[in-house]
Specification:
7 helices; mainly alpha; 2 domains; two-stranded parallel sheet
Length: 126
């Protein structure tokens, strides 16, 4: 998708019209996508975010926000983890602050060893 957006940046207006027609969207939306360099939608990340470092990484990768559930509530200190993840999300480009908020917050949620999973998702429905 990013490559398609990059290709449109240098396209002639008639090619933009064709792209709008192909994707069944207004031409203004194609132009807005080009000016932003990404789709003009909110992009949230969820799942697998268990530490302040995870939250900061998602923000550095360009998401607009994150959802965290079990990463907080299955940690051994939910209040501390919640505060640290909020700080890491807000200040994701400040390594010193990330170290500070990640220190002394306790242990992150425990993962599950794949061999101990009761249901393997890829085997469902067969």
């Amino acid at each position: 998708m990013n490559q398609q957006i990059d290709d449109l940046k240098f396209a002639h207006l008639d090619r933009l019209d064709a792209a709008a027609s192909k994707f069944r969207v207004p031409l203004d939306l194609v132009k807005k996508t080009i000016s932003l360099g990404r789709l003009p939608v909110v992009n949230f990340a969820a799942g697998g975010i268990a530490t302040p470092a995870d939250a900061a990484l998602m923000m550095q990768l360009g998401v607009d926000g994150i959802f965290v559930g079990s990463g907080i509530f299955k940690s051994n200190s939910p209040g501390k983890f919640a505060r640290a993840i909020v700080e890491a999300t807000s200040h994701y480009s400040d390594p010193k602050l990330l170290v500070k908020v990640s220190t002394g917050i306790g242990e992150a949620m425990q993962g599950i060893e794949i061999s101990k999973l009761e249901t393997r998702m890829q085997e469902r429905g067969w």
